[in-house]
Amino acid sequence: MATYLYKLGRFAFRRRHFVALLWIALLTLAGVGAASAPPAGNSSFSIPGTEAQRAFDLLEQRFPGMSADGATARVVFKAPAGHKMTDAGEKAAVQKAVKELSSGSEVASVADPYAGHTVSQDGTIAYTSVKYKVSGMELEDASRDALKEAAGHAREAGLTVEVGGDALNATPETGSSEIIGIGIAAVVLVITFGSLIAAGLPLLTAIIGVGIGVATIAALANPLDLGSTTSTLATMIGLAVGIDYALFIVSRYRAELAEGREREEAAGRAVGTAGSAVVFAGLTVVIALVGLSVVNIPMLTKMGVAAAGTVAIAVLIALTMIPALLGYAGRTVKPAGEKSKLLGGGREAKKPGRPNMGTRWASFVVRRPVAVLLLGVIGLGAAAVPAASLELGLPDDGSQPVSTTQRRAYDLLSEGFGPGFNGPLMVVVDAKKSDDPKAAFTKVGDEIKGLKDVVTVTPPAPNKAGDTAIITVVPKSKPSSATTEDLVHAIRGKGGAITSATDATLLVTGATAMNIDVSQKLNDALLPYLALVVGLAFLLLIVVFRSILVPLKAALGFLLSVLAALGAVVAVFQWGWLSGLMNVEQTGPVMSMMPIFMVGVVFGLAMDYEVFLVTRMREAYVHGENPGQAVVTGFRYGARVVTAAAIIMIAVFSGFIGSSESMIKMIGFGLAIAVFFDAFIVRMAIVPAVLALLGRRAWWLPAWLDRALPNVDVEGEGLRTEPDEDPKRELVHA
Questions:
Q1: pLDDT score recorded for residue 658
Q2: CA 343, 348, 352: angle at the middle one, nearest 5?
């Protein structure tokens, strides 16, 4: 592989115009496609294999035109102080709003608060439910505008009006902190390379790669049903790995220049060696992201595949466009150890022979491996303790910022009707096989009324055929509480007795039940997913490192960093520690998909540092150094780059903590803290300590397996015999 990539790097350096034009053409093509495509909305949400989804599917069959999965809105009205919603003026304003809401072409139904008895006992708060024929993703802007206008007209009449539900869901905003993250990345690159030009190359290529990936996602959003968060997550991951991969290759290019090689030769060798590490690091990320499909949640699968595509683009750009741009940059990219004049170049150099910080740190770890190992493991173990209290759920309007109308509507409903009104359960009774459907409906209602934590059970609402009915159940507790989850399980627990007595089938659905089913499905899929991803990556790393213990150590270190990161997420988003600093307005259960998403993404990113750092060590070991010295050599050349890459990735992920979307905020924080733990504690401390303790055993591989494995030559051994093919290549001048 190293030889092939070496030739690719030299080709891109020589044919720089062709390579640059190719990528610009791809960016333009993707941009045109995105500009001509309709914008992404909220992806339709379906969870195959769950009871809640089966109930939705049954409703579509038995209640045609009901649009069970259509968008919903709850318009909540509150009377002015001293007035009640039953007063003539307030009642007239509400009925006028109901009439306005009913006029939309996409509106399926609007409930009159007075006919439906949805006025609070004290008479101060009322609400109307608006049901749409299409999903939130398909809802036209005109329908959203009509909803806002109707609420505005009621406000003009003196009422407090707020709107909840998914009909008003908007594309999340990341805020200015994302720009700050990119700015920090730029500063780190300038410090690392000592040159504005060299620092700009990784940023430029990463932005181009993310631009192609996100534009492609936007162009395919409608036909592939991609939600608005898909492009945000692709941006987050693609930007971070794009900068890192380019950083690895530019850093190796400067190191090759420092050894006196010509520029084209240096570009070829940089792509042949660091590029090999980039390919395998990228493969682990892609495996982890595509592996999310095993969970069998379409939305999560699409997010993973889209992000994986962006990572693949980042790898290809690093291997081709970076050497092309290095050809354009010429002498402005200095050999390692030199700076441009603008940044202090030409000053007296440091004393020759003085070891750099990476060398000094690695030497210390090699001398004190047990102490460093124990300190790292104990520290991560302490950070992981809160993970034992992990509670999972999906965000609802109650997790929105208090500045949003959705959150204020949620709070008004809790105030007027109790927290359970924000998460009513929909019980579907299929009595098609029953001899007496009406009796079956009545029995189900009576059974549910006898359960704890139930406030209201509505009379059964049968379909035209009379064989299926809907019963709405309002819990006492809020939707995300464990008590409400217990109620859902209790209702479902009655299903067996109902079927035995009436031959009817009972199903529980609705947003709250769907969230509970999603959480359970994700929990059930976590271990199989972990085994699949870690297993495939373990096999891949055996090929890369030609070792059994090094990949095993990499996997165990990853588990430590993920558990510690989950502990930090629980402490901030569930317990509320430092919530003010993170602008977390509402604590509660951790998002259900957070653990499995972190496993996928963090594993791939962690392997970036593992591959780049440890391949340098193996390169030194196979070239004759003893194991301890190989660890020090790996840090001499790789520690500065890995440190810079980790800081950049942390900065980019931290930028998304400013998002208005709680899911994006939580993912941004979780990935940032996970990279910190993995890069600076696991890879920079635990890894060298373990390798120092293992010695030569770290690189042991059974002879039969060594013969069976393909030789991918990540260390670039084959390049040591590459002939100098082109005598006209540009020479390096100081």
A1: 75
A2: 115
Tokens standing for residue 531:
């085994």
Q: 627-654 and 687-694 helices cross at what angle (nearest 10)?
A: 160
pTM summary value: 0.77
* Tens-digit pLDDT profile for residues 236-253: 788 878 888 888 898 888
Q: Residue 121 burial by CB count (10 A; 0-12/13-18/19+): exposed, middle or buried?
A: exposed
CB neighbour list of residue 607: distance below 8 Å, 6 or more residues apart: 280, 281, 284, 285, 537, 541, 554, 558
DSSP conformational letter for 426 = E
Residue 160, strand partner residues: 78
Distance from C-alpha of 85 to C-alpha of 318, rounded to nearest angstrom: 64
Give CA angle at 278 (665, 544), nearest 5°. 115
131 has which bridge partners? 72, 109
Instruction: Tell how strand 72-78 and strand 590-591 pair up.
Output: unpaired
What sign does the CA torsion over 529, 709, 280, 642 have? Answer: positive
| Angle between helix 549-569 and helix 662-676 axes, rounded to 10 deg | 140
From residue 166, how far is each of 260, 418, 570 by CA, in Å?
A: 62, 20, 26
CB 532 within 8 A of CB 62: no
Longest dimension (CA), the chain: 96
Structure-token pair, residue 203 = 């940023």
Which residues are registered as beta bridge partners of 127?
76
Backbone angles phi, psi at 216, to 5 degrees: -65, -40
Task: Give residue 644's pLDDT.
Answer: 85
DSSP E strands: which ranges in 29-176?
72-78, 107-110, 125-132, 160-164
